[in-house]
Each structure stands twice: as structure tokens, then as C-alpha cells.
């Protein structure tokens, strides 16, 4: 089974992380249907999976990348443009949230007129 992961260019560590999180998600789904205090063990399962993931990521067994003779330097020529686009999109999102606050969440409720006698 690890050979299939290696054929895709992925190592056995990625496969181990996928299996770990698939089992954790399945266990969380099963425990979320439980009654009583067993329902709160979902938090422990998620934290346990996060700790195991951190241990697998922080303590690798092999070198991260095999040494190659040719070193390629990747240069991002559109970095500034991407940051400008991110800034504009962030401003648009903040403007939309502000308009949502004004026109939807703080919609005025008008008083009904008093009946005149």
C-alpha cells in the first residue's frame, strides 16, 4: 500500500497522515452521536490526532528532500501583484461586512403610529 503512495510522488508519511486523520474523523463522527459525556471525547480525539500529526511532522525520519546536483531557484515575479490583489479583496470583504452590518443586522424597526381619536 505504501508503494502506491510512492508511485504518486508521495511518501509514506503523507499516507500515514491521511490514514490518521481519516480514522480521527470517522471516530469523531461516531462519537458525536453518543449520549452523555462520551460526546465530549471528540475534543480529545481531535487533540490526539493533532498531537500525533505534529509529532510526525516535526520529527521526520529522513531528509526532507533528496540532494540533487542541479539547484533551481524559483523566483516569483508576480508577488507584488498578488499582494495588491489580496489587499483589494480584503478591503472589499470589509466593505461588504460593513454594509451587511448596516443594512441587515441593524435594520431600523419603525414604531407604529398611534391611533388618533
Order of SSEs: HHHH
Q: Rg to the nearest angstrom? A: 26 Å
The total count of helices amounts to 4
Number of strands: 0
What proportion of the residues is helical, as a percent range? 55-70%
N-end to C-end Cα span: 86 Å
Going by helix content, strand content and strand pairing, the class is mainly alpha
Integer average pLDDT: 83
Describe the protein in words:
This protein has 117 residues and is mainly α. The protein is 62% helix and 0% strand. It has four helices and no strands. It has helices at 2-7, 12-32, 41-58, 79-105. The radius of gyration is 26 Å and the shape is flat. The mean pLDDT is 83.
Short description:
With 117 residues, this protein is an all-alpha fold.
Topology of helices and strands:
Elements: H1 2-7, H2 12-32, H3 41-58, H4 79-105
Helix pairs in contact: 2-3
Question: Which keywords apply here?
Answer:
mainly alpha
Amino acid at each position: 500500500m505504501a508503494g502506491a503512495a510512492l508511485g504518486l510522488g508521495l511518501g509514506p508519511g503523507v499516507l500515514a497522515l491521511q490514514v490518521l486523520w481519516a480514522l480521527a474523523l470517522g471516530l469523531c463522527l461516531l462519537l458525536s452521536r453518543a449520549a452523555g459525556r462520551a460526546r465530549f471525547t471528540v475534543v480529545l480525539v481531535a487533540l490526539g490526532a493533532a498531537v500525533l500529526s505534529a509529532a510526525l511532522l516535526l520529527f521526520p525520519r529522513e531528509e526532507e528532500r533528496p540532494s540533487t546536483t542541479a539547484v533551481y531557484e524559483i523566483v516569483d515575479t508576480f508577488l507584488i501583484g498578488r499582494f495588491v490583489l489580496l489587499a483589494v479583496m480584503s478591503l472589499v470583504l470589509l466593505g461588504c461586512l460593513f454594509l451587511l452590518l448596516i443594512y441587515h443586522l441593524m435594520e431600523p424597526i419603525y414604531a407604529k403610529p398611534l391611533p388618533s381619536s
